[in-house]
Specification:
The chain is α/β, with parallel strands linked by helices. It contains 9 helices and 10 strands. Helix 5 links the parallel strand 5 and strand 6. The longest helix is centred in the middle third of the chain and has 17 residues. The two termini are 34 Å apart. 52% of the residues are buried.
Length: 365
């Protein structure tokens, strides 16, 4: 894909096995081992694949977490989506933000925190790396000085991704990026359903005279005919507003709006059963703004709102999408500098893994 970072940028390589070429260090001889070799520590590339024909995250039982390139889940990195069933891709853009910037660093920090993720989903039994070919394909090369041009670059990059038959799992970046992504997705699939988790509806007409920014992507999507409006659900909306009816536009389009107040203190599993029935078997896109969660759990974001969802509810939402025809996902608005603990990015990494686990074709064990 031409607009991804060039290989000389140091991010793209054929596979993680390329990063360790030296022999393991010598160790004292132990019973049952050969002199000068370790009986336990395989080379990085061997641990990375574990005898599978699919790409597999290396286990920290054999490869130390700080070792290797900083890719999503330490998966192999390649320069395009060709041959992949799903791909993690970063869009380090935050020039559409209206409050605190910093989401351009989200993809990098999410990748760093993703070293804690392992091969299997211990709660659901999902085994995505036993059934899908997955890799990290780097970042879209955005133009930080020109937001419309960045949207063009994103749209062109995602055209290549979806044309290859690969499902993109996007690390944002501010929520502006969902608009050009959906332009590319809808070119292939037609108008798609949308499951949108957020503190904000993101349906504004304009701000400071501009129609493209992180508060307007879904109004732009409606105007471009990218959404199947009868299959759009927005969950977690809350906060003060400029208008006494802040969700009127969404409701006028036929969107189902679930304010955060309707989620407080309860399981969202019943809601997701209704969402699954509403979505049917047609294409669905998931867009998850980390500020949909309460800032007690995810303070590292640009426009935090109090009294949001919990991480457990976020898992219920994503896991409730199992069996749906998911054609793309994004996790946006992680701004790491506002959370020195790294927990916001860690949460984002886990939610992206959960999205991977509910993609079509993922097996369970």
């Amino acid at each position: 894909m031409r607009r991804l970072l060039p290989r000389r940028a140091g991010l793209c390589a054929r596979s993680l096995s390329a990063f360790v070429t030296a022999a393991p260090p010598a160790v004292p001889t132990t019973p049952g081992s050969s002199p000068g070799t370790s009986p336990r520590l395989p080379r990085f590339g061997a641990a990375c694949r574990w005898g599978s024909r699919f790409n597999v995250p290396p286990s920290a039982e054999f490869v130390a977490r700080p070792v290797g390139i900083c890719s999503m889940m330490r998966l192999p990195v390649q320069g395009s989506a060709e041959g992949l069933d799903a791909a993690f891709v970063g869009v380090p853009l935050d020039t559409g933000t209206s409050n605190r910037p910093g989401a351009r660093f989200g993809p990098r920090q999410i990748r760093a925190e993703s070293v804690m993720l392992r091969r299997y989903n211990g709660s659901t039994g999902a085994a995505p790396f036993d059934s899908l070919r997955v890799a990290d394909i780097g970042d879209v090369s955005v133009n930080l000085y020109n937001l419309p041009d960045s949207c063009r670059l994103i749209r062109e990059s995602y055209r290549h991704i979806v044309a290859s038959g690969c499902v993109p799992l996007t690390l944002g970046g501010d929520h502006t990026i969902t608009y050009p992504i959906l332009q590319a997705v809808a070119e292939k699939h037609g108008p798609v359903g949308l499951l949108h988790v957020d503190a904000h509806a993101d349906t504004a007409e304009r701000a400071l005279g501009e129609q493209i920014y992180h508060g307007s992507p879904f109004r732009r999507c409606v105007q471009d005919g990218l959404l199947d409006r009868g299959r759009v659900v927005q969950i977690g909306l809350r906060g003060s507003a400029y208008d006494p009816q802040p969700y009127q536009y969404s409701q006028d389009q036929g969107f189902r709006v679930v304010p955060a107040e309707q989620c407080w203190g309860k399981s969202l599993a019943p809601l997701l059963r209704e969402v699954r029935a509403q979505m049917g078997d047609k294409p669905l896109y998931i867009s998850f703004d980390i500020d949909g969660l309460d800032p007690a759990y995810a303070p590292g974001t640009g426009t935090p709102e109090i009294a949001g969802l919990t991480p457990a509810q976020a898992l219920e939402i994503i896991r409730g999408c199992k069996g749906l025809n998911i054609v793309g996902c994004d996790l946006v608005e992680v701004a790491p500098m506002y959370d020195v603990s790294g927990n916001t990015a860690l949460l984002g990494a886990n939610l992206l893994f959960e999205m991977l686990c509910v993609l079509p074709g993922v097996t369970t064990r």
